[in-house]
Model the fold of this input.
Amino acid sequence: MKLTAQALNLDWPEVDRRVCRFIKDYVERSKAKGVVLGLSGGIDSCTIAALSTRALGGHNVLGLLLFEKETRRTEDVRHAELVAKEFGFKTETVDITPTLEAFYRSTPIFDRTDKLNKGNVKARTRMIYVYYYANRLHLIVCGSSDKSETMMGYFTKWGDVAADISPIMDLYKTQVRKLAQYIGVPEEIVEKPSSPALWPGQLAENELGIKYEQLDLILFGLERFMRPEEIAAQLHMEKHLIDEIKCRWLSAEHKRRMLLTAKLQYRTVGADFRLQRNPP
Amino acid sequence: MKEVFKIALAQISCQQADKAKNLTKIRKTVARAKKQGAELVIFPELSLTGYVVRDEIYELAERIPGPSTKIMEDVAKKNQIHLVFGMPEISAKTEATLHNSAVLIGPEGFIGKYHKMYLPTHSIFEEKRYFRPGYQTAVFDTELGKLGLIICYDIYFPEVTRLTRLKGAELIVCISASPGVRRSFFEVLTVARAIENTAFLAFVNLAGIQDGLQFWGGSRLVGPSGRILVQAKYDEDDFVMGEVNYPDIRAIEAFVPTLKDLRPELFEQLKKSAEEL
Done:
């Protein structure tokens, strides 16, 4: 198998159709009134908002702009508003700064210099807002995680990844960009460098230490059981870099699964209690 | 025996784990097929219960004949029609040994059943966890000629269809629950199985979404030359009628004589090589 950008190419009209059917089917079965999602102004959330709108109609989609003073960027706000205008879904803006400040002040062990744990608080606080809106307004939480970040464990456990459905979690970041282009997400959003917006100036590719174009090919190879030395040879990379990515992928499995427990009885939640997921 | 007759490909979506709802849909569809002159109506794999029911299958499975086949017999008798559908079956000799079965019922009642031989247990499939495989092909002598039954993944193994054909089936019914990512495989295999056996092949696939799996529909009747005679829509519930015309096989069989040219000695080699794989 050749690891080239061509390998990641999919039938975009078909992917668009399948993702939209998936969203519509789940919302209808759940008897929810629509979906709510955290709208950061980045490629993933803008794409998922656009797809949800194509699936459900704009009046059934609510994008929450959950900004806070440290990471708020005018460009992100403009992009969130731009995609909402282009596709025609509802938005609401909430400044979560007071909530975060209250958490910081009231937590005896809180350390403002520990930016990673502080960032996780922000991601989980956004999750609380999204779920509050979902429960209050009878909406489904639609997640916007992509496959690259999910495989790398590049997300906050119970934070940005928390959702009822994650319709594009099987698409690598570069594939999300292609899908976004296909459905007409504005080019400036598609081309903008990704950021989880947990602290000022944070950029995903800087933190991951690799460009998504290359990372996605490595992950694609690992997905198809290619050995690290094969991937390294094809991509002209050092094998230890592929090993590091493989290790990161495997060690993050605990973030992708629900609750692990000790097996004590006949059938066990999360182990061999195997039930259908769809609501009856 | 009828040499020319109409069949209905009833591509339905199913309510997971809700036999009553699925039976209602099946009953209505049979009546529609009858109105349009069908002699045979075919429903997808596990259409009684839905495909993704996981552990609930132990509660849903029934004996064959059993309560649900009895209902289906009444439907077939009332409409004077043949029907094929799929359901999970509990072995008559055990309490929790299951088969993934296809059932054939005629205007006079229950005719026979087939146990799926090849149970996919890879990727998202977990059939071997629940089902015991079948060991016999199934060909039944009916008013509509010799009908053979196979199920979904069986079609990847040409020996199943071949054996069904060699036992005399000229119409091979393949009921299926195939999710979207496998469409390109089935679209080739259904045509290949029809050509290499010079038989009619009726493929009826599930539609709809179950636990994120999108069943792609695309049911089709393929003629003995590999021509797609009718095809249902992708993904959605659909209902299409097609015509089986057994005399058409004669011309194709003379032109592409795959059965005449069979080499039995290769099957011995095949067996030996497969054992040594």
Chain B has a mean pLDDT of 97. Chain B touches chain A through 17 residues (CB under 8 Å). The radius of gyration of chain B is 18 Å. The first strand of chain B starts at residue 4 and ends at 11.
